[in-house]
Structures are given as structure tokens and as C-alpha cells.
């Protein structure tokens, strides 16, 4: 079964952070909530670029919630 974009994004982030993200956390500021630093964020973005064969624009750095991040990735895949 093929992974959805949402599942893939969450999987990459959970792998990077080393713990599971709860659905209730999707609308929280995930960088603040998870204490993710800029280097981890860049690593996550790079892994998702590779996974989906996309080039993420710098605007990805302005995304705050996991829900927004997933939508941003979905939009880039469709572009």
C-alpha cells in the first residue's frame, strides 16, 4: 500500500525527532512544540525533497504547523 503524503511527512519528521507525533499536535507550532532546530528542519526538508523528487522553495522555512507543512508539500508535489 502506498503511503499518503501526510503519512510520509509525519514518518520523516518522527524519524528525525526520534518520537511519535500525535494528531492533536498537527495545528501547534511544531518547531516550538518539538524543539526542532534549523538544521533538523533543513534535514527534514531535504529528505522530503528526495522522497518526492521536488525542490522546496525557501518559503518552506516560514511554515509553522505540521498541518501547514503537509499542505505545502502536497502543493509542491502537484506543481
Describe this protein's structure.
The chain has 79 residues and is mainly α. The protein has helices at residues 5-17, 30-34, 38-52, 66-78. The longest helix has 15 residues, at 38-52. The N and C termini lie far apart (24 Å). 11% of the residues are buried. The model has no long low-confidence stretch (mean pLDDT 88).
Question: What features would you highlight for this structure?
Answer:
single chain; 79 residues; mainly alpha; globular
Extract low-pLDDT stretches: none
General shape: globular
Beta-strand proportion? under 5%
Order of helix and strand elements from N to C terminus: HHHH
- For the record, give the distance between the C-alpha atoms at the N and C termini, rounded to a whole number: 24 Å
What does the radius of gyration come to?
Answer: 12 Å
How helical, in percent, are the residues? Answer: 55-70%
Largest sheet: none
List the helices and strands and how they pair.
Elements: H1 5-17, H2 30-34, H3 38-52, H4 66-78
Helix pairs in contact: 1-3, 1-4
